Amino acid sequence: MDVHVMLEKNGQELLVEGLSSLRRLEARAMMDATAGNDVIRTGQIEIRFRLQAAQTAGRMTMFEFLVPAGARVPVPHSHDAFDETVYGLAGVTTWMLDGEAVRVGPGDVLFIPRGHVHHFANLDTEDARELSVIVPGLLGPEYFREVAAVVNAAGPPNIERVMEVMRRHGLRPAPAVT
Q1: How many Cβ atoms from other residues are within 10 Å of residue 165's Cβ?
Q2: What is the pLDDT of residues 12-39, one digit of tens each?
Q3: pLDDT of 5 strictly over 50
Q4: ω before 74 within 30° of 0 (cis)?
Q5: Which helix (H) or strand (E) element contains residue 145?
Q6: Do residues 73 and 134 share a domain?
């Protein structure tokens, strides 16, 4: 009740002060977005987080990833708790989304709704770079570090262990979609 009375008396000043504080926080998050965000190497793929959940109040995460020519991601999957949007920066990847091939190149956007099975490969002759946005920000660098620990171990990757990590982080492995 006291807060409501204060807002009626000084509402305009509080609103301006609140917006200014929010803008300062947003600017700081943008400036600090890449600070301390090391490259995570998962097999041939390199991932660098540009925004983490802590920087966006959990609203989103954003990471850039490099997919060398000929590289493949072997485990098709879906996620029920978040949507993913992929934006092509350089090169071309071929995504399989619900059994349909979609090429993503510079300036192309692919929206992957919750629950839709997808995976990708770089079938071209040049490396590809893309930006991925996860909404809400439930997928972070911890996931990729855990997958890297399995995939980068000596010997062939243990796909069962990769799928265990996926499940722990809200991804649901799916049968291969061709």
Answers
A1: 20
A2: 444 444 444 555 555 455 445 555 579 9
A3: no
A4: no
A5: helix 141-151
A6: yes
Q: Name 75's Cβ contacts closer than 8 Å, sequence gap at least 6.
A: 119, 159, 162, 163, 166, 173
Residue range 126-146, pLDDT digits in tens: 999 999 999 999 999 999 999
66 lies in some domain? yes
167 lies in the same domain as 108: yes
Q: Measure the CA–CA gap between 16 and 76, rounded to whole angstroms.
A: 47
CATH (domain of 91): 2.60.120.10
pLDDT digits (tens, 9 = 90+) for 55-69: 999 999 999 999 999
d(CA 76, CA 93): 15
Model pLDDT, residue 7: 41
Tokens of 94: 């071929």
Tokens of 11: 């509402």
Q: Is 21 helix (H, G, I), strand (E, B) or coil?
A: helix
Give the residues across from 87 on adjacent strands. 109, 131
Residues in the chain: 178
d(CA 97, CA 108): 15
Nearest-CA neighbor of 169 among 156, 150, 154?
A: 150
Using the structure block, give the residue that is written with the tokens 């809200």. 170
